[in-house]
Amino acid sequence: MITFFAALLILIVGYFVYGKIVEQVFAPNDSATPAVANPDGVDYVPISAPKAFLIQLLNIAGLGPIFGAISGAMWGPSVYLWIVGGTLLAGGVHDFMSGMLSERNDGASISEVTGKYLGPVMHNVMRVFSVVLLVMVGVVFMVGPAGLLARLTPEWLNVKVWTVIILCYYFLATLLPIDKIIGRVYPLFGILLILMAIGIAVGTIIHSGERPMMELTLKNLYPGTMDSATGKITGVRPIWPLMFITVACGAISGFHATQSPIVSRCIKSEKQGRKIFYGAMVAEGIIALIWASAAVAFFWNKDGSGTGLSALKAIGGGNSNSVYDMCVALLGKIGGPVALLGVIVCPITSGDTAFRGARMTIFDWFKLDEKKIRVRLAVAIPLLLIGYAISFINYNVVWRYFSWSNQTLAMIVLWAAAVYLATNYGPNPNRCWLAAVPATFMSAVSVTYLMYAPECINLGAKGAAGLTISYTVGVIFAAIFLAIFLLTAYRNPAKSLARQNGVNIDPRVGKAGE
After folding, report:
1. Contact 192, 341 (CB under 8 A)
2. Which pLDDT value is given to residue 396?
3. pTM above the 0.90 mark?
4. What share of the chain is helix, strand, coil (3-state, %, to 5)?
């Protein structure tokens, strides 16, 4: 339990300390935000800072900090280090920079922002990549809560029925102005989200006698399978890179970058950015920490003998079944359903804005007019129908592809942020390390996973040799990406390729960023 409270304290203190450093590096100013300068009554609508924070939190806190954190718990308490370090040093930086860069580019979608700073090829890649990821997110966050709702309702309200009901809500949230549904129902959803997190934390602490929280260990506790013939343990999956991809949104998430423009179009001042963007990521990190620590405690000692995390692996990791079991066992027949409602709220409030974000990306891509409802209909309906069709694919398969593409998008956004910091703040580009370091790290994670995972190149099937090759290729590619960036940023910052093109010079930085 000491590890849990220490990690919780580090997250809170980290928001005030490292979050302030991030804010000072970016140097927000008093220029008019897009919502103030160009309100349109649909997407550009000025809202208060507390409401903006709540919307951002509910947008990003989908199934990732719950299902992902529980799945990450299969490796044991080492997951705490990734949640805490990833949130403060990578995820918070990523969310803050993506939100503020969108704000400084008139609320542009993340594909337009990254294209501006990384060039035309990446521009088109990101347009396609963002739409595909957002649709997959919408599917994941549609099927997940449908499974939970089916557990709480009569038999005739099965998963398929709930999927259609949620899809209808997504249609309205995608189509209507942001203040008509999202701005009105999110405060209620926020209360459920907070109750859920507090309830699970308190329930885990109360049951610490029979299911104690484990203290930190770097040992890989992923449950393997004993070979009866040889007596050897097989099937133990490596922490790197699998845990770093599996936890996904609980530490860093490219999906967040697709959601930040929704709120960047609504904030009233740049100086609200740290509280809204960095703060929401820290809040999500706390949610992930609660669920990960609860899962380790609950499943390690599920049968009362401390036999390990095999029970969590057997139930499929983080999914509706494991969440249901934990909520009911820790909080009882009354508290369990209340907590489950909070779990259901998380993905629904991310799924609706995932489809909305996909619609906004397409509108930015083809320069469409968001004020015309028939145009919004023409884009929203096909997106939702495609999402519904994908919902019939095996959920675990969709989640794995979502997780990898999610972290790869985060890598790309961090590189775009590093370029911005290197080329907009005077002749010394040292500010870029704030984003360049986590960008390099996530490059190694994404490429290593691409080489190792069964749904990708599958070198993991070759045993230790395949793992070594995956590690080597991941590190080499990360080093190459960093070298390319440094040649551009440090060779001659004043005459870098981006500056020559004149596409990323931000007139609002001025002397504040020198």
Report:
1. yes
2. 64
3. no
4. 75, 0, 25
- Report how far residue 304's alpha carbon sits from residue 437's, in angstroms, rounded to the nearest whole number: 43
The rounded distance, in Å, linking the Cα atoms of 382 and 377 is 9
- pLDDT of 495: 46
CA 66, CA 197: separation in Å to the nearest integer?
10
- What's the pLDDT at 498? 46
Can you give the length of the chain in residues? 514
Nearest to 329 by CA among 295, 289, 293: 295
Ordered alpha helix ranges (H), 45-119: 49-60, 69-72, 78-85, 92-103, 110-118
Rounded to whole angstroms, the Cα distance separating 197 from 124 reads 39
Model confidence pLDDT, tens digit, residues 56-97: 988 888 777 888 899 999 999 999 999 999 999 999 999 999
CB-based contacts of 194, cutoff 8 Å, min separation 6? 342
pLDDT in the model for residue 415: 95
Rg of the chain over all Cα atoms, to the nearest angstrom: 22
> For residues 301 and 214, is the Cβ–Cβ distance under 8 A?
no
Q: Where are the alpha helices (H) located in 301-391, listed in sequence order?
A: 310-314, 320-366, 373-390
How far is 222 from 313, CA to CA, in rounded Å?
8
Separation CA 387–CA 198 (nearest Å):
32
* Token pair listed for 57: 């939190």
DSSP label of 72:
H
d(CA 373, CA 361): 16
